[in-house]
Specification:
CATH topology of the largest domain in chain A: Neurolysin, domain 3
Radius of gyration of chain A: 23 Å
CATH class of the largest domain in chain A: Mainly Alpha
Order of helices and strands of chain A: HHHHHHHHHHEEEHHHHHHHHHHH
Oligomer: homodimer
Number of strands of chain A: 3
Helix content of chain A: 55-70%
Number of domains of chain A: 2
CATH architecture of the largest domain in chain A: Orthogonal Bundle
Structural class of chain A: mainly alpha
Strand content of chain A: under 5%
Strand order of the largest sheet of chain A: 1-3-2
Shape of chain A: globular
Largest sheet of chain A: 3 strands, mixed
Largest interface: A-B, 35 and 35 residues
Chain lengths: 499, 499
């Protein structure tokens, strides 16, 4: 076996074990009986240990060295590039450090949960300080060129740096923040009594969920829809993609837009190149691109007037009687309420990125400067006042709301905003090639858009790095402009405000 | 780490990987999307390869040798005994032979399916001949003392031999066969119009299934009920046991008795000793004992008059209107129709063991003598005539009906009958200790019986070999007498025939 073949063989084994892990995780979240938890932890720990052993096998290091002087084609080079990154990431951290960090994360998870529960930052403070210390240390192990924060960003989106992110967030800061302030002082929101006064049976929500997902093009012979407390998209590979949602009979939007979000992730997974199955290059291209596919269907399409026109009769069928006296336009206004709020996960598509921007600014300071954790809660509140014009009344609705930091997942938040920006940029490019795009959405013909994504994004796997893929698909490097244009047009239509 | 600790460590890893395999198999049978099949085969193959590598690691052979001279307690000795058997079985077959046999099995599966479909034994003949040749060769690798067939029997029930089985089947041959012939010439079966003329909605069947399983004592916080084409009991361990059934709206008995059967398997799995989790000795004690637990609840309890009295009101609740004019006694008669039939899987509890006895006689000849496969179909038919008084009109209803032989699973059938015999013997012993057993069943109080099984069977894991466990629990070695007594009493009550 030559070196390249051996590389593929080893990566295939790692991928198979990872796919098995994803089936077990899905099962755990969705259908495992309660008492199965303890032994499931044993199963997952064994798989993780097995994978780690294979990933850090010194033989992989040797193969990489051997191949670096070889003449490789595009696919081969990409496989080598990704393997090398994976190997470096897995071997650069001393085992002692990894173990100590894992223990700290689990401890910090507990103290964060208690702190949030009791609305008392002091309970989390000490562990948070340790998380920051270890994360800073981690950046030194990972290595970086300019900012230590770059080392963290790169974990979630290859090649992402502060230098690349700053201009994107600048665009949002300068354009979106004023827009929101104007809407919140001048905009008039529609009456939502019809929504609050009706019951929305689970059966109807399930039917809506299923039919919309099928219409978008999710293939249910290669996937499933289920329900779970924390909605997600999982499953082992393109032929077996499993997404979940949750149902609340007092509120039908959560399950619909959640379903469209996960359907977006799901179509990406189903569209990955099957000829590159089990190769690193066949995998999805990072979290930002993944999020672009979910946000595209959830927001850009799902909250458009054209989609509301198509989906309205389906709402009428799913919820007989509930939609009397309503119109597609009223539905559209109801799914597009924009107003500043305190909780990221409940925010609308306009304010969402400001929540992320605040976290980005804090994370940069946390990692680049020697800020004391004591200062972070007030910094959080002051940034909410500055960009959203509101101040959290307590820590629970402020700095303690997200789980990410206690898990040491610093550098993750920006990928959410990248998803929104990429979605707008991709849709703008797709619309140039799809004749009568709006009319197609209005008539429920989603396949031209899905096929554009299949061709330009899904089928490309990880051959390119994320920023290159966006440029390859749209003709321009990542930019905040299409998103700003999109949101500005929308607020103008919705609120008559020209930002 | 001393040798015994290392043995446990290695067996734990093997057990974890096997548990993972069982989750993936369950998923494949029950909920996997259609297109997931191909990659699932890759997942399972990788797990099997990984397990095989660990099981055949020469280091295990060394550890076994070292431990054999050590002073071990009962649990330790049992762990050593089971590991040794597993290691010998896994290492005694040359890898070439294993691979060739696996290929032959897959090929024979196809030719058997086609032969059955076309009712043409000739299509299967050649592969069947090869299966027999390789199976005979396998017995030489496995080793045996008296009969080569012993080597095969031992695979499915440790310690089982022709010497042990012959007297059990003799008992059945001498007692049950005449009984059946008398019933079929003189017995009068009840009118089943009520059953055929009603529709039996799936919802009602599911409710019946669930309530009966809960009443028996299956713990749904440590397990699940689902539906699948081929009902089975699976899941990774005592805390996560998953059984399935199937529903046919024209016939409600299949799902109920199927559910009680799998619930029996399920309670055994849930009752395994948790303090011995991940140790060989903590596993169930072979197929015969397992089948005793399923048959106990399906037949001995499920088809008793007392159970029918308890369950009748539940039938009324599950199928409103359908049970009008019926009584518990009529229900009892309907679930106990006894008559000779051609297909094993559709046969009743009286004739079932004659189907198995016929297969046992043929298998013995197949392995011990040099019979030509050509002769087997007619041998089959003549034995059906001899013991059941009927002759298959074609091969499809005769020798081609079962999947076992094309899979090379020769020696498996007898465990089904062992299950029935053990069930009767265990129930007879339990009834001696449980006060007013019949009355307890009549009032739906199943816990004394389940607890007896927990104490005497489930919690014992594999500390003893199957025949020892039966003797330990009942005071006598395995015997056909309790089953014959049970069936004789029952036919007398049902048909007024004193066999």
């Amino acid at each position: 076996m030559d070196y390249y073949q051996e590389l593929l063989f080893r990566m295939r084994e790692i991928e198979i074990a990872s796919q098995i892990r994803s089936i077990l995780s899905w099962d755990q979240e969705v259908i495992m009986p309660k008492n199965g938890a303890e032994s499931r932890a044993d199963h997952l720990a064994w798989l993780s240990k097995t994978i780690h052993k294979k990933v850090t096998d010194p033989k992989i290091g040797e193969i990489i060295s051997e191949l670096e002087s070889d003449k490789l084609d595009e696919i081969q080079s990409a496989n080598l590039r990704i393997t090398k990154k994976m190997y470096q990431r897995a071997t650069c951290l001393p085992p002692d450090f990894v173990e100590k960090f894992a223990r700290l994360q689990s401890q910090a998870h507990h103290s964060w949960a208690e702190a949030r529960e009791k609305d008392d930052f002091e309970i989390f403070k000490q562990d948070f300080q340790k998380i920051l210390q270890m994360t800073r240390q981690k950046t030194e192990y990972l290595g970086y060129e300019k900012s230590p924060y770059d080392a963290l960003l790169d974990q979630y989106e290859t090649g992402l740096t502060v230098t690349r992110l700053d201009p994107l967030f600048d665009g949002l800061r300068n354009e979106i923040s004023p827009m929101i302030k104007e809407i919140s002082s001048q905009g008039k929101n529609p009456n939502l009594e019809w929504l609050r006064d009706s019951n929305w049976p689970k059966r109807g929500q399930e039917m809506l969920s299923q039919e919309v997902s099928e219409a978008i093009g999710f293939n249910f012979e290669s996937g499933r829809r289920d329900s779970s407390v924390h909605p997600f998209c999982g499953g082992p590979n393109p032929n077996d993609v499993r997404w979940t949602t949750r149902y609340d009979e007092s509120e039908p939007f959560g399950s619909l837009f959640g379903s469209m979000h996960e359907t977006g992730h799901g179509t990406y997974e189903q569209g990955r190149p099957s000829e590159l199955a089990f190769q690193p290059v066949g995998k999805a291209c990072g979290l930002g691109i993944h999020e672009s596919q979910s946000r595209l269907w959830e927001n850009q399409i799902g909250r458009s007037i054209e989609f509301c026109e198509w989906v309205f009769p389906l709402w009428e069928r799913c919820f007989p009687g509930n939609m009397e006296g309503l119109t597609p336009k009223l539905l559209w206004r109801a799914v597009n309420i924009m107003q500043p709020s305190l909780i990221r996960t409940e925010s609308d598509e306009a304010t969402y990125n400001l929540h992320i921007m605040i976290r980005y600014e804090i994370e940069k300071i946390m990692i680049e400067d020697d800020i004391e954790v004591d200062q972070i809660p007030d910094l959080w509140d002051s940034l909410y006042q500055k960009y959203l014009g509101i101040t959290p009344p307590n820590r629970k609705l402020g700095v303690l709301q997200d789980i990410h930091w206690c898990m040491g997942a610093i550098g993750y938040f920006p990928t959410y905003t990248l998803g929104n920006l990429y979605a707008a940029q991709l849709l703008e490019a797709a619309k140039k090639e799809i004749q009568d795009h709006d009319e197609k959405i209005r008539t429920g013909n989603f396949s031209p858009l899905l096929n554009w994504m299949r061709r330009n994004i899904h089928s490309k796997g990880s051959i390119l790095e994320p920023a290159e893929l966006i440029e390859d698909a749209t003709g321009s490097p990542p930019s905040p402009d299409p998103f700003v244009r999109y949101l500005s047009d929308k607020t103008s239509d919705l609120y008559g405000i020209n930002a």
